[in-house]
Write a sequence for this structure.
C-alpha cells in the first residue's frame, strides 16, 4: 500500500523562482489531522498581497480529510506531500529541503497571516538590502477563536535570547543562508527545536525586528502542550547556547513557578 501522496501546482509545471526585485518567499506548514483548521491558514496565504510566494504543506499521513483539503486548494499550494513523519521538525526539514525561496517561514496549521503580512516583511527587508539580516521576526497575537488573549514577540537580542525564547517564531522569516550555514532543525527536539536552531549562531545572529502584528496564533499549540517545554529549553540553552547548567536550572524552575502562577490566576477568573 502506498502511504505517500503528493500534489500541488508545481507538479503541473508552475514552478516559482526569485526575481531581481521580488525575492521568493517559501511558507511551510506541517499538518496532522488538521482538516478543521487548515482552510483558514490556506486562505490567509491566498489573500497575501506579496506576489512571489511558494507554499509547501508537509502532512504526516492524516486520516481526517486533511488530504482532501490539500487537493481542493492546489491553486495556492505549490507542493504538498502526505506521508508518515517523525514530528514537526522532521516535517519542517522536509519542507526546507523542498523549498526554493530566498526567505523561509513556518506557519502553523491553525494559525493565520494577517492581511498584507508578507508584503510588510519584504518591504522592511528591502530597506535593509545593503545589510540583509539572517532572521526577521515580528509581533504575534495569541488568540482563542476570534478573541485575542495576548500579544507576544520582542526584538531579538542575545542577552535575553540566551535565557528564553523572546521572539515570536511563527511566521517569521529566515534567510536561506541561515540553514545552509547552520544546518536543519534537530529532530531529537519535539517542542523547542526552533529555539535550539536560533541559538546556534549565538550573539552573531544578524536579526531584524518588525514592530507589526503579522499573525494570529492559536493558543494550545505544541510549544504550550506539556511540561516538556521547560526541559527542552534547559537542554537547548546548555547544549547549544553555552549557558551554565546552574543558571539554566534556576531559570527553568523560575519559569515553571511563573507558569503555575499564571495558570492558577487564570483558573480564578
Amino acid at each position: 500500500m502506498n502511504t505517500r501522496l503528493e500534489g500541488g501546482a508545481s507538479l503541473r509545471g508552475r514552478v516559482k523562482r526569485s526575481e531581481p526585485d521580488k525575492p521568493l518567499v517559501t511558507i511551510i506548514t506541517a499538518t496532522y489531522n488538521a482538516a478543521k483548521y487548515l482552510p483558514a491558514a490556506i486562505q490567509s496565504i491566498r489573500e497575501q498581497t506579496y506576489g512571489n510566494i511558494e507554499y509547501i504543506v508537509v502532512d504526516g499521513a492524516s486520516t481526517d480529510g486533511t488530504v482532501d483539503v490539500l487537493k481542493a486548494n492546489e491553486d495556492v499550494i505549490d507542493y504538498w506531500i502526505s506521508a508518515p513523519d517523525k514530528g514537526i521538525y522532521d516535517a519542517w526539514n522536509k519542507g526546507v529541503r523542498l523549498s526554493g525561496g530566498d526567505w523561509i517561514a513556518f506557519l502553523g496549521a491553525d494559525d493565520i497571516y494577517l492581511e498584507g503580512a508578507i508584503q510588510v516583511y519584504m518591504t522592511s527587508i528591502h530597506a535593509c538590502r545593503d545589510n540583509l539580516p539572517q532572521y526577521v521576526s515580528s509581533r504575534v497575537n495569541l488568540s482563542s477563536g476570534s478573541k485575542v488573549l495576548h500579544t507576544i514577540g520582542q526584538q531579538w537580542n542575545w542577552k535575553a535570547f540566551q535565557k528564553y525564547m523572546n521572539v515570536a517564531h511563527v511566521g517569521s522569516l529566515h534567510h536561506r543562508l541561515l540553514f545552509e550555514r547552520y544546518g536543519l532543525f534537530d529532530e531529537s527536539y519535539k517542542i523547542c527545536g526552533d529555539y535550539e536552531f536560533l541559538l546556534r549562531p549565538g550573539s552573531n545572529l544578524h536579526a531584524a525586528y518588525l514592530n507589526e502584528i503579522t499573525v494570529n496564533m492559536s493558543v494550545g499549540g505544541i510549544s504550550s502542550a506539556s511540561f516538556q517545554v521547560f526541559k527542552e529549553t534547559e537542554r537547548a540553552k546548555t547544549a547549544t547556547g553555552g549557558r551554565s547548567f546552574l543558571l539554566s536550572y534556576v531559570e527553568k524552575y523560575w519559569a515553571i513557578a511563573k507558569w503555575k502562577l499564571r495558570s492558577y490566576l487564570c483558573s480564578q477568573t
Remarks:
- The chain has one domain: 5-225.
- Residues 52 and 119 are 10 Å apart (CA to CA).
- The two ends are 51 Å apart (CA to CA).
